[in-house]
């Protein structure tokens, strides 16, 4: 079922969902199941599976230490989606990215997804490779999420790269990313907004936001969307703090601000266990406010670790 239909059927009740990443090469799919099963009691109508263009390849040095030597794509996104649908009868949402994929490979992925009965995709550009200072499109691939959306729309209409197949139409519901605190490459919020609106005007049915820790940023973002005619569901993406180092790491990686209240509280934490407890309580408060505001879904970036999300979901659902 489409995410938009899940939200419509919920009639204003806030739903619960989460995102997983494929396991590193060599790890079994049990790692995925262990990330899902503790959260099934909150009845997620869908689970997202990310797509990773770059994964480290390590080589053992003479001194026994591992050194990063190169990168390659991490496999598994589509297969894990298939496994989720098969095992749990829950909709799985694969992330499709431009970076690392030719248009031909994207088309083949869409065909696989259609064969598997997957109804939703999250269309993203992807980040720059570690070796590049800015995003460099893959030769023969797409440049922006808007290009990928156009590709999916064509696919929905039965238009393929080299032929039109009138009988092979799909009906993917397309989700896109939104940034309450602006995408870091955009010169300002309004420019970023212009492209977000373009993504929605092209047919995106829902938006999932980058993580944020200050609900006011989400409320302002939703209000600005509505004022500008963006009327699709805006799903807040949430990541509770679980370690002390995230105080510096999350702002650096995700280009977001942590509010004073949270940083002040974390400055008193003596270890990761205390930081996690503070992060949990802060996220419970955030979630309660988001439910009151009418957020359609609370979408957690669990990274395959369900325990903290479970504690939070228990307190708010
Ligand atoms: P776009 O919408 O293409 O925007 C990229 C930048 O270009 C923005 O600054 C925008 O303002 C600008 N822009 C957009 N369209 C145009 C245009 N037509 N012309 C000129 N400028 C334009 N990354 C992964 O690698 N794998 C994942 O699975 C993944 N999942 C994510 C899930 C969510 C919910 C979010 C929020 C992010 C995710 N990301 C993922 C990260 C994402 O790929 C990066 O943030 C990336 O830098 C931007 O992707 P986008 O789809 O927002 O890009």
Automatic annotation (TrEMBL):
Pathway: Amino-acid biosynthesis; L-methionine biosynthesis via de novo pathway; One-carbon metabolism; tetrahydrofolate interconversion. GO terms for cellular component: cytosol. It catalyses: (6S)-5-methyl-5,6,7,8-tetrahydrofolate + NAD(+) = (6R)-5,10-methylene-5,6,7,8-tetrahydrofolate + NADH + H(+). It holds the Pfam family MTHFR. PANTHER family: METHYLENETETRAHYDROFOLATE REDUCTASE, METHYLENETETRAHYDROFOLATE REDUCTASE (NADPH). CDD domains: MTHFR. It comes from Pedobacter xixiisoli. Its cofactor is FAD. GO terms for biological process: methionine biosynthetic process; tetrahydrofolate interconversion. Keywords: FAD, Flavoprotein, Oxidoreductase. The lineage of its organism: Bacteria, Pseudomonadati, Bacteroidota, Sphingobacteriia, Sphingobacteriales. Gene3D superfamilies: 3.20.20.220. This is Methylenetetrahydrofolate reductase. GO terms for molecular function: FAD binding; methylenetetrahydrofolate reductase (NADH) activity. InterPro entries: FAD-linked_oxidoreductase-like (IPR029041), Mehydrof_redctse-like (IPR003171). Belongs to the methylenetetrahydrofolate reductase family.
